[in-house]
């Protein structure tokens, strides 16, 4: 980052320099969400949750057609999730075990590796179950909460396309 006057800053993203407005760090927030109603965050993001029966998906032959997009939705093994979920902003030192990894990794590093712009990183919510980070939009789910062959119910959390 390089300051560019009082209100602008030069930021290097993906090898390019961009001139952007200086932003204040978002206010710290922490919410409890049971998934019954849409979750509307102050930054304009909205999330919805629903439970899906794996048996019904199998009988309708839709199990293989689930759309995976870490930025928009996550599928969690509902039997491993404790409701209500805590939803908060990212904090320094936040770590979790991404799907497929054997150890913990800092959320900050994961977001950087995915080349998610700094301005977006600051406003992404962090979803926790039982004090453990289960998902951050743009990243894979936590290994411990993944859907497996023994999963009977799935908790789908999806970013909605809210139009104000």
Describe this structure in words.
This protein is mainly beta. It has one domain: 3-Layer(bba) Sandwich (Phenylalanyl-tRNA Synthetase, Chain B, domain 3), CATH 3.50.40.10. Helices cover about 10% and strands about 35% of the residues. The chain has helices at about 55-60, 105-115, 120-125, and strands at about 1-5, 10-15, 15-20, 30-35, 40, 45-55, 75, 85-90, 95, 105, 125-130, 130-135, 155-160. The strands form four sheets. Strands 4-8-11-12 form a four-stranded antiparallel β-sheet, with no helix packed on it. A hairpin with an 8-residue loop joins strand 9 and strand 10 (about 105). It is elongated and about 60 Å long. The protein starts with a strand and ends in a 5-residue tail after the last strand.
Q: Calculate the terminal CA-CA distance, rounded to whole Å.
A: 32 Å
Got a strand count? 13
Q: What oligomeric state is this?
A: single chain
Under the CATH scheme, which class? Alpha Beta
Strand order of the largest sheet: 4-8-11-12
Quick one: biggest sheet? 4 strands, antiparallel
- The global form is elongated
CATH superfamily: Phenylalanyl-trna Synthetase, Chain B, domain 3
CATH architecture: 3-Layer(bba) Sandwich
| Share of residues in strands | 35-45%
Q: How many helical elements?
A: 3
* Percent range of helical residues: 10-25%
Uncertain runs are: none
Please provide the ordered H/E string of secondary-structure elements: EEEEEEHEEEEHHEEE
What structural category characterises the helix and strand content?
mainly beta
Residue-averaged pLDDT, rounded?
A: 87
Give me the Rg, rounded: 17 Å
Looking at the structure, the CATH topology is: Phenylalanyl-tRNA Synthetase, Chain B, domain 3
Indicate how many domains the architecture comprises: 1
């Amino acid at each position: 980052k390089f300051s560019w006057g009082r209100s602008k800053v030069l930021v290097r993203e993906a090898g390019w320099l961009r001139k952007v407005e200086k932003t204040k760090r978002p206010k710290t927030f922490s919410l409890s969400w049971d998934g019954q109603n849409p979750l509307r965050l102050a930054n304009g993001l909205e999330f919805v949750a629903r439970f899906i029966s794996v048996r019904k998906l199998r009988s309708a032959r839709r199990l293989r057609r689930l759309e995976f997009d870490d930025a928009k939705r996550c599928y969690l093994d509902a039997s491993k999730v404790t409701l209500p979920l805590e939803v908060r902003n990212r904090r320094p030192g936040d770590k979790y075990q991404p799907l497929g990894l054997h150890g913990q990794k800092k959320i900050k590093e994961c977001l950087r590796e995915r080349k998610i712009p700094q301005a977006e990183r600051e406003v992404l919510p962090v979803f926790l179950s039982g004090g453990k980070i289960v998902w951050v939009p743009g990243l894979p789910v936590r290994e411990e909460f993944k859907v497996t062959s023994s999963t009977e119910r799935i908790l789908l959390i999806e970013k909605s396309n809210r139009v104000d």
